[in-house]
Structure formats: C-alpha cells, structure tokens
Amino acid sequence: MNLRITFLFALLLMVSIPAFAGFPVERRAAAETTTLVANEDEAADELVSPAAYALDSQMTALLLWVFLWPFAAHRWYLKSPIGWNILFILTFGGLGIWAIVDLIDIITGSYPGL
C-alpha cells in the first residue's frame, strides 16, 4: 500500500512540475536593454553588443543546464519545440546522452537557440 501511494505521489509530482514551470522565458532585444543607476532620477540607456548578449544567453543556458537539466530548463529557455522538451523530461535526457549533447552544443555555441 505504501509503495502504491509513493508511486502515485511521484507520478503526480512528475506531471505537475512541468505544468507550473515559468518557461519559456521571453527575452528582450539587445537594443532595449536598460540599466538602473543608483540615483533613480538618472536612468541611463545602455546599448549592449550582440556578442555580449549572446555570451549572456549562453551563460544563462549553461547555468540552467548545470542546475536544472532533468527538467529541460535550458531547452525551454532556448525555445526548443515543446514536444522535444517533454520527451527530454520523460526519458531523463535520453538517459543522459541527449543531455551531454546539449551541454556540448551550449558550450560551443552551436545550439539552435543561441
């Protein structure tokens, strides 16, 4: 009986976590990036180069992979197709192989969403 309850709880947890995830994250264009100055009256607009924006996006994807790869957080962030993301979660990253391929693609910058 306890095993059945544990299994049902784990199944409920697996189904509900992706439903409440805050992904995909909408990113702003590089030209629209603003920074806040210590004084609120002096708000300065700062243009960010596309290379710096790509590096920031790559670092964010890498950190999401390191901490949340079983939930495909990096894939949601980089706007991969929803079906593939769900398959990634259900197969535990293709038994880890798919996850390692994603890591290599993120590090080299060849992932389609970067």
From TrEMBL:
Key words of the record: Membrane, Signal, Transmembrane, Transmembrane helix
Domain of life of the source: Bacteria
Transmembrane region(s): 47-70, 82-101
Membrane topology: Multi-pass membrane protein
Span of domain TM2: 57-104
Signal peptide as annotated in the record: 1-21
Protein's cellular compartments: Membrane
InterPro entries recorded: TM2 (IPR007829)
Protein name in UniProt: TM2 domain-containing protein
Source species: Leeuwenhoekiella parthenopeia
Classification lineage: Bacteria, Pseudomonadati, Bacteroidota, Flavobacteriia, Flavobacteriales
